[in-house]
Write a structure and sequence with these properties.
4 strands; 64% helix; elongated; two-stranded antiparallel ribbon; 5 helices; mainly alpha; 212 residues
Length: 212
């Protein structure tokens, strides 16, 4: 069964859309190739993106490579977009990735049976690995150009993996935002103010005092 991260409805395996209309992520088979050092649980099916998230930068990257390889455009157009994306991905891997994993580990320790942190962990670890592989492949492509060789497959493979990395990160973000919205809705229904937890404590104490 696949739980919708928008409404929580349990859907049969293989369905693409939930009854509410939300797209249901596919599952990556446990222990599948390319899992790297993901420390996958044997009893967990892991979510993966089913389609590309809309991204002007990723579209610009893919088209700039196409224009260079197929239309005779200058490589500078591709480099301008690639360097911006490369810098952002490397900054995440070097400065934010470990911090994200530590936060998720703490979340998993709170409720080991909660599958949500496992899924987020899978997505960001897989996204990070794809980003590294993609950058390495593009760098091989650019190094070959310096030697007046065009290794198109390295360039295409690198861009494809960078786009996949972006999809994994954005799916993790989408799931996090949806979870936050769900928690906020439940809290509101119960009369709790997540933006002012001190007020909730005061109300609780007043309620207890009134009962006494």
């Amino acid at each position: 069964m696949i739980a919708c991260f928008k409404c929580g409805h349990e859907n049969e395996d293989g369905q693409k859309y939930c009854a509410c209309g939300a797209l249901l992520p596919q599952m990556a088979p446990t222990g599948s190739q390319g899992s790297g050092n993901l420390d996958l649980d044997e009893d967990t099916e892991y979510i993966k993106p089913t389609e590309h998230f809309p991204s002007a930068e990723m579209l610009a990257l893919a088209w700039a490579l196409h224009d260079f390889l197929e239309e005779g455009a200058e490589i500078e157009g591709f480099l301008d977009v690639y360097e911006v994306i490369k810098t952002r991905l490397e900054n995440y891997n070097q400065n934010l990735h470990q911090e994200s994993l530590e936060f998720i580990t703490n979340d998993r320790n709170i409720d080991p049976d909660d599958s949500y942190p496992k899924q987020i962990q899978y997505l960001i670890v897989r996204g990070s690995a794809l980003a590294e592989e993609g950058i390495a492949s593009v760098e091989r492509f650019l190094d070959a150009l310096d030697e007046d060789k065009v290794q198109a497959e390295d360039g295409k493979d690198g861009v494809a993996k960078i786009v996949q990395a972006n999809d994994h990160f954005l799916l993790a973000l989408h799931m996090s935002m949806t979870r936050t919205e769900t928690i906020a809705a439940v809290a509101k229904a119960r009369g709790l103010d997540l933006n002012n937890p001190d007020a909730n404590q005061v109300e609780e104490e007043e309620a207890v005092g009134a009962e006494e």
